[in-house]
Structure formats: structure tokens, C-alpha cells
Amino acid sequence: MPALKVNKPWGHELILTEENLAYTAKILFIKAGHKLSLQYHDLKQETLTLVGGQAELIVGPTKDQLQTNSMAPFTGYTISPNTVHRLKAITDSLIFEASTAEVGTTYRLEDDYNRNNETDDIRNSQRKNE
């Protein structure tokens, strides 16, 4: 299966796995100076690995208890469900993400692009439109 490219306002993601699997693998391309939502997932667990560029992982138990970590290349950073997190690219960056299936809701606490929470329905419609 060829990768499915999903354009995002911060860059794009290449989804490497089929929809019906119990896991998802993807590569995120984040443009320099851009960041993903400050978010948490109710069901999804993920491990993030910097494979190119320079990026920061902002993470904590709540929005008011965040730490900013410079990501070390080829190091796994695991994010459990309900953990608040955000990725920020210092330079153009590539992040490999391995996670449980893309299910549940992504709750966006802050978003530079004014996007709402992402549900299964929204996620599925984005995949069909790409």
C-alpha cells in the first residue's frame, strides 16, 4: 500500500498503514516554526521519534504543567492517553509516529489554525478527501 498523504496547515503526514489495523505508523513533516495543536487523546497512545531536523516536544499532565524538551534524534518519546502534548519544529522536521489505531477524539486545547477537536468522523472524512 502506498503512503496516504494528508495535508495539514503545519505540513503533512504520510500514513503508512491501512485503516483497519490495530496500530498506525506515520511520518509527520512539520515546517520550520510551525507547531501542532496543544492536545491530548482520549484513547490513542503514541511513540514519537525525531528522524530529521530539530524539534521540541512540549508535554505534561495538564496545560498548566508543561515541560519543553529538545527531541534527541532516534529516541522514542511515548505519550499515554490523556497526556497533554505538542510538537514544535525549530527547523523543517520529520517525526516518525507509531501509535495505537487512530480512534477516539483528539482534544485541542490550543491550535494556531483554529481547528476544532478531531473525532473519528472528521478523521475519516479527511482521509477520503485526500
What features would you describe in this structure?
By secondary structure, the chain is mostly beta strands. The protein has a single domain (4-129), classed as Jelly Rolls (Sandwich). 8% of the residues lie in helices and 48% in strands. It contains 1 helix and 11 strands; from the N terminus they run βββββββββββα. The chain has one helix at 120-129; strands at 4-8, 11-15, 23-30, 38-41, 46-52, 55-60, 67-70, 76-79, 84-89, 93-100, 106-110. Strands 1-2-3-10-5-8 form a 6-stranded antiparallel sheet, with no helix packed on it. Strands 7-6-9 form a 3-stranded antiparallel sheet, with no helix packed on it. Strands 4-11 form a two-stranded antiparallel ribbon. Strand 1 (4-8) and strand 2 form a beta hairpin. The chain is globular and about 35 Å long. It starts with a strand and ends with a helix. 19% of the residues are buried. The model has no long low-confidence stretch (mean pLDDT 93).
Could you tell me the CATH topology label.
Answer: Jelly Rolls
- What is the residue-mean pLDDT, rounded to a whole number? 93
Please describe the biggest sheet, giving its number of strands, its sense, and whether it closes into a barrel: 6 strands, antiparallel
Structural class: mainly beta
CATH architecture: Sandwich
Q: Summary?
A:
With 130 residues, the protein is mostly beta strands.
Descriptive tags:
single chain, about 130 residues, mainly beta, Jelly Rolls, 6-stranded antiparallel beta sheet, 3-stranded antiparallel beta sheet, 11 strands, about 10% helix, globular
